[in-house]
Structures are given as C-alpha cells and as structure tokens.
Amino acid sequence: MVRDLLIHLATSESGFVSTLRRMSTGEGGVPADFDPNRWNAGQLRRRNDMPPEQLRSELESAHQEMLALLDSLDDAALDHRGHLSSGDEGSTEDNFRLVAAHKRGHTADIQAALSENTPRNTPSPSGRGDLRQTGPGTGEAVE
Length: 143
Description:
By secondary structure, the protein is mainly α.
C-alpha cells in the first residue's frame, strides 16, 4: 500500500504541475472527460518496478517545481479557471488547494499504514518494554 501511494503521489505531483501551469496561463485544466482512476491505474502499471528512491526523488523534484510555479504567479494567473481532476470547475488557486488537500490526505494514509506495521509495546531485550515510551509509566508511544 505504501509503495502504491508513493507511486501515486510522485506521478500525480508531476501531473498537477503540468495542469497548474496550463491553468495559470488560461489554457484550462484537465480534459472534461479526465478519469483519475484510469490515469492512476496506468501510472501504477508503468512505474511499479521503479525503485522507491527514484520515486521519492521524482516527488521532491515535482514538489520544488510546483513551489517555484506558485511563487511565479500573480493574482490574475491564480484566477484563471479550468476543469479540475476532481471533476469540478475551478481556478488555479482552487487547484493548488486541491493539490494540498490531496497530499495531506495521502500523507496521512502513509502514516497510518506505517504505524499499523510498527509493533507497539513490544518487550525489549532487557524486558523493560517498548523503549519508545515517554516517561515512566506514561504508556504514550513516541512517533
């Protein structure tokens, strides 16, 4: 699941940059018949063998591109409208907000998946319990 989410985030980030660039110049957003499920499935198939380090590098690079694009836009560019990948019509600014919500949501998904795979309160070799606990007897795990 985490790998699929990494592939999804890396490819969608790159796709969002292209869409945001088009929208900001008044060229519209994604095509009206855009199917995000079909697009995502195709990206997963094409990049399934890509090493995680390469996916992470691609995600970081696309993120930097997106920040640079955002910094370069004026209010008029943020007001241009187009079709969003959500199926709605919106402005470039709306699309940036969609991207942020998308990334927050999938980041939470990754964090949840990783925490499910992390053993909690497992005895240490010394028999004193989970060394990630804070303070004596608090029972709170440190993330």
